[in-house]
Amino acid sequence: MRKEDVGEILISPVELETRLRALARKISRDYRGQSLVLVGVLKGITFFLADLARQIKVPFVIDYLDLQRFAGALPQDRVRIVRNIDYPIEGRHVLLVEDIINTGFTLDYVLSELRRRQPTSLEVVTLLDRPLRRMVSLPVRYVGFQIPNDYVVGYGLDYRELYRNLPFICTLRASVYDIPTAPPDPTA
Q1: CATH, residue 129
Q2: Quick one: three-class SS letters along 72-139?
Q3: pLDDT single digits (tens) 146-167
């Protein structure tokens, strides 16, 4: 990583730790006396899920989904599951753990697939939420942080598999991902 690639630090390591503790306390309180199945969506979820799970005080198992995203005519046609969960969730309390929610199309697809397995309950916890980009109305029970519509990396979030290891969440400069910030000046 080059220092000049990253922009503003939006969420510091201390803010992450503090918010994760609060989320884990609320989840533990809400599921007191029950057990959970935590389902993480790979790969961006790695650090958030590990840190959150260490602080949850109710029994749980962890399983993972891996998705493939691609261009398609309709939003629901743009995602498919390439690695499904192995653990049976019928009759179980399931908490889907997401790194970031943007439009909601991917989350809507995953929730519909998980509902087919008939869990007793199915809730969502997300580290980051971009409500301004939402195109599908979805119930999200636990939200870590709401963020602006900037490209963010760090704490598991990547750009081309890089920057995941940053201990904070920051913006990525537009020059890194080659999106012009303004149209070219024809007189230049």
Answers
A1: 3.40.50.2020
A2: CCCHHHCEEEEECCCCCCCCCEEEEEEEEECCCHHHHHHHHHHHCCCCCEEEEEEEEECHHHCCCCCC
A3: 999 999 999 999 998 899 999 9
